[in-house]
Amino acid sequence: MLKRFLNNLKNFRRLNGRAKGLTLMELLVALGLAAVLILVATRTFTKVSDIQDRTRDLQNIEGDLRYAMNVFADEVKYAKPHPAADVPCGGAGCSNVYFCVTGSAPQVLWLRDRNNVCVSYSLVGSNLTVTRGGNSYTITSDDVSVSAANFLVSALGDRVLVQLRAAGSTDYNKTINYQTAITSVLLGKRL
Q1: Which of 56, 79, 84, 131 is buried deepest, with most CB atoms within 10 A?
Q2: CA 49, 66, 153, 163: dihedral to nearest 10 degrees?
Q3: Rounded to 5 degrees, what angle do the CA atoms 127, 132, 135 make?
Q4: Residue 63 pLDDT class (50, 70, 90 cuts)
Q5: d(CA 168, CA 149)
Q6: Which of 93, 130, 92, 124 is nearest to 109 (CA)?
Q7: How wide is the angle at C-alpha 59 spanned by C-alphas 57 and 60, nearest 5°?
Q8: What's the confidence (pLDDT) of residue 134?
């Protein structure tokens, strides 16, 4: 089968007893078309690659903010009110409330967790940080730059609205705003 294919190829190249070849013009046209096709394919691949990078960056930002909100929400749901007799987390203005915000830029949100440990959330550099019992932990990765963390507490100090603004580490400058409102499930129960 292979032998027959090679014989047919040899016969195709011969026309009237002499070898048929390509002219210089045909060769240049073929090279030009191949170059255009390669250029189009390269640009398409580059665009697809850029879109994938942007999508991955946005997914990283959303994933980090979702994780931070889940950590935050889990702690806030079981927050206890600051007893009036104790020195409240965050200072004297934070007594007898579930949540308290101090500072302006950056803000610090104070609460007592289910174990009655004083907890604070704040923006340190470009990371959202939680401090429990004197130990600090970042809850956002270094790949995500948190530019704003705002905590709005209701007048009674029993609900908190969290607003986070973050961007990825790439040069796309896409900013995501993430917001949620949380109330303690222990609200109304005196512990």
Answers
A1: 79
A2: 0
A3: 70
A4: confident
A5: 16
A6: 130
A7: 65
A8: 82
Strands (E) across 90-168 are located at 99-102, 108-112, 118-124, 127-132, 135-138, 144-153, 159-168
Structure tokens at 4: 């027959």
Element housing 181 (H / E): strand 175-183
Please tell me whether residue 133 adopts helix, strand or coil conformation: coil
In percent, how much of the chain has pLDDT > 70?
A: 70
* CA 169/CA 153 separation, integer angstroms: 30
Mean pLDDT of 148-167: 79
Radius of gyration of the chain (CA): 32
- pLDDT tens column, 95-129: 667 777 777 767 888 888 888 888 888 888 888 89
144, two tokens: 């995500």
C-alpha of 11 from chain center: 63
